[in-house]
Structure formats: C-alpha cells, structure tokens
Design goal:
GlycerAld_3-P_DH_cat, GlycerAld_3-P_DH_NAD(P)-bd, Rossmann fold, alpha/beta, 352 residues, Dihydrodipicolinate Reductase, domain 2, oxidoreductase activity, acting on the aldehyde or oxo group of donors, NAD or NADP as acceptor, binds nicotinamide-adenine-dinucleotide, NAD binding, 8 helices
C-alpha cells in the first residue's frame, strides 16, 4: 500500500523527507503536495544544493505550480495559514506538519477540518496532540478511531526512548535522568537576537556559534509518556554549534545489578532484532559527525555504558537529528495512513 502525504514546511525536515522518499526504491509513501511560504524555485534549489547532505542525487526543478523531483510532479502550495492549504485537491491523506510554527494540536488539526486531509503528524514535541507515538516504543498504541493528530516527540526523545525501552524490557528501568546535546537548529541566529527570538527562554536568542546553550523545555518527560513504567524523569537539553549529529545520554536505576557487558549485549540484540532500523549499534569509537545520514533514531555507543553495584546504569547514543527523525516521521505517516486507508482516493504522484 502507498500512503499519500503532503508536507507543510519545506525546510530541513521537509527536504530530508523528500530526499529519503526519492532515494528509496519502494518507500510506501508518495508525496503529493508540499506547502511553504517560499517560492517553488527556492524549494527546488534547497533540494539541489545542501551544505550538509551535498548535491541532490537526481533532478529537482520548479515547473508551473509543481515541484518536479526526478520527473515526479509534486503540487506546490504557498499558503502562510494552514487552514488555507487545499490538501484534498492534491489527493493528500496524511500531512506532515513541519513548519515548526503549528505545533499545537488544535492548529495542526485545521489540515483535516479545513484542508481535507485525514491525519496529521506534527514533526515536533507538540502541544496536546491526540497521541505521542515514539516508533519502536509505543507506536502500537495508535488507534485510528481516536488519533487524528499525532506527534512522535522530538529527535532527542526518540533517541532516548529506544534506549530506555531496551533497558526497561530487559532490566526494569526507573527514575530516568537524561541529557541531550543537539546540533545547531535553523531557528537559531548567528548573532545575539534575544529580543527578536520567538522562544520564551532568552538564552535561545543568543549567538549560535559562541555558546553551549541550555534548552531545557524541549524534551519534557515524553520518554515517560511513551514508557510510563519508568516513573519519574528528569532531563537536560543543550544546543551546541555543530552542523549535524547529536548526542543522547540516559541514566537510571535498574531492578538488579547489571554489568556493562549485559547492557551492551541487550542493545546489540535489540538492534539486530525487534528494534532493527530504529536502534543501531556500533562499537567503533564515534564522534557526532559520524552519525550523519544514519537512518536510525539512535546509534548506540557501547563505550558510553557505565553501571554501579546498586543497579545504576548510564548509556549513550548518537543521532542524526534530521535524517533519523525524518525516517521516523515517515514510519509514523505509513502507520497512520495504512491503518486508516482511503479506498476512493487515488495517489497523485504523477509523471511530469
Ligand atoms: N532540524 C532538526 O534537527 C529537527 C529535528 C527534529 C524536529 N525538528 C522540528 O521540525 C520542525 C521544522 O524544523 P526544520 O529544521 O525543518 O525547520 P526549518 O526552519 O529548516 O524549516 C521550516 C520551514 O517552514 C517554512 N515556514 C515557516 N512558516 C511557515 C508558514 N506559516 N507556512 C508554511 N511554511 C512556513 C519555512 O519557510 C521553512 O522552509 C520544527 O518544529 C523543529 O523543531 C527539527
């Protein structure tokens, strides 16, 4: 089955999704429409030239009201307000809301109530979606009758949650404390822009390249929302001046004393088994840039594992904050699209 999606916001995440779909021989996803306040010419240019991913391995041009990617025509819209985007006219079933502007469940829902889409996936830790679904941890709780607007949390939440899932299932994890160190984000500014920032915390308006910037509110306790059995959760989040590649560390208390080897074996087995594709395992000494283009939510780093005699455990994973998360957005879009299929609507990824 092919799920037909539309993408609102053709920035880092929107373009990563498009690159992933274009590169896959059988993605199970068809991009029927994209919307951005930018022109179609800029959308095409942003695909062709990318400082992090390199040149687009194919063609991307603007033609009339379409973005044409490798001869596939994607309808391009340019609406600032989500309720104006006519998704249904383009045959879109699932909208990936990736502007960063419409993270509230109520606003994102206008893609359904006004635009005619059937489901929405918000590409961030949203405010009051119908469900938080972390792929590999709790995505099987998705209920198509109850959940129209879903959020997979953030890239950091996904990296932390898959490690927590393994520790919980194998050793009984609780009382989690986590740290995420995130690569530079597009909304940051190269010079201080404290007054101009839309973020509540003034530190998030400070110059990107100069500082390690605390960004505490982002993770929330979403790991606990996906895995309520872990009980209490504390977290720290920092944004650092690296272009791509981020770090997640998680510590907690297990039900018994465990060895480093036991923990690493559990992660390796999960990466080769039930969490294949979502959790990866690599014993080679890793730094953040090494994770670039890795599609997993988390590349587990066994050199980071520490344990204590009273059952304390600490683990480390890396993640490509754009690429891994965009792959999970597509997994969730497939999930919500396939569980609520539309028989009458045809896929409109047409040959230009
Ligand atoms: N980049 C990452 O590492 C990353 C990882 C996980 C989650 N996210 C989340 O995904 C979302 C998007 O992030 P991004 O990095 O792609 O941001 P970005 O700034 O690169 O892209 C946002 C895009 O939305 C467009 N836009 C802005 N306002 C709009 C509007 N009103 N209507 C239509 N288009 C509009 C912009 O022109 C831009 O192209 C954010 O919520 C972010 O927190 C980002």
């Amino acid at each position: 089955m092919t799920v037909t999606i539309g993408i609102n916001g053709f920035g880092r995440i929107g373009r990563s999704i498009t690159r992933i779909v274009a590169a896959s021989p059988d993605p199970g996803i068809s991009i029927a429409a994209v919307n951005d306040v930018a022109s179609t010419e800029k959308m095409a240019y942003g695909l062709r030239r990318d400082s992090i991913r390199g040149a687009f391995p194919g063609t991307a041009i603007a033609r009339a009201d379409h973005l044409v990617v490798n001869d596939h025509a994607i309808r391009a819209f340019h609406h600032e307000r989500p309720e104006r985007i006519p998704w249904a006219d383009a045959g879109v079933d699932v909208v990936i809301e990736a502007t960063g502007r419409f993270r509230a469940g109520t606003t994102a829902r206008t893609h359904i109530t006004h635009g005619g889409a059937r489901k929405v996936v918000i590409s961030a830790s949203a405010d009051e979606p119908d469900a938080f679904l972390v792929y590999g941890a709790n995505h099987d709780t998705y209920d198509s009758d109850q959940h129209d607007v879903v959020s997979p949390g953030s890239c950091g939440v996904n990296a932390l949650t898959v490690m927590a899932k393994v520790l919980l299932d194998r050793f009984g994890l609780r009382a989690v404390n986590s740290t995420v160190v995130l690569a530079t984000q597009g909304w940051q500014k190269p010079q201080d822009s404290v007054v101009g920032t839309s973020r509540d915390d003034p530190r998030l308006g400070r110059a990107t390249g100069d500082s390690i910037i605390p960004h505490n509110f982002v993770v929330g306790d979403l790991v606990r929302v996906a895995l309520p059995e872990i009980g209490e959760m504390r977290y720290s989040y920092y944004v650092v001046p690296t272009p791509i590649g981020s770090l997640a560390e998680l510590s907690g208390q297990t039900g018994r004393a465990v060895s480093v080897e036991e923990v690493n074996r559990a992660m390796a087995e999960a990466a080769a088994g039930p969490l294949r594709g979502v959790l990866a395992y690599d014993p080679d000494p890793t730094v953040s840039i090494d994770v670039k283009n890795n599609p997993a939510s988390c590349l587990f780093d066994p050199s980071g594992t520490q344990t204590t005699a009273d059952g304390g455990v600490k683990v480390r994973g890396w993640f490509d904050n754009e690429w891994g998360f965009s792959n999970r957005l597509l997994d969730i879009a497939r999930l919500v699209g396939e569980r609520s299929p539309v028989a009458s609507r045809r896929v409109s990824w047409s040959i230009a």
